[in-house]
Amino acid sequence: MQRISVIGSCGSGKTTFAQKLAAKLDVPHIEMDALFWLPNWQPKPLEEFRNSVTAAVADEAWVIDGNYSKGRLRDIYLSRATTVVWLNYSYPVTFGRLLKRTLRRISRHETLYGNNSETARMAFCSRDSILWWMTKNYRRRRREYRKLFNDEQYAHLQRIEIRRPHEAEALLEQSCAPASSIS
Question: What is the pTM of this model?
Fold first, then answer.
């Protein structure tokens, strides 16, 4: 595993897992959200975003996390990746993690990418709520990732599906040996 893409539903723990894996492998960690968001939760223009990701994945080894797909970026980072790790957790696990993370960020006033922060109003009273977005897109994302793993365009990738958090920990502890692979 040289160039690894970590995918999964919003709140599944992609960034935390990717950071740990990158540290274990002693390679750079690339967080696509950090490349995408500008101040005031404004998205970076698509071409600029694509250029940022292209430059970030030019190295010989890295771990990238994020769900930017289809026409946006997948062609850039998955064409260079050697491995894709899918954090395919159940809805209750994923939603619970997302809720806990959101509450922590709000209570601690954590600063995120683009000098942004989450607010209670944004999380619970907005059409842009990350909790609502995750709920709306959870099943669609799972179907999308299953198709991705069966797509001949990505036949070059080693595919690792992790269904439970303890499998993710085992993958990190076992010198990055696959916990379970998708055929």
Answer: 0.90
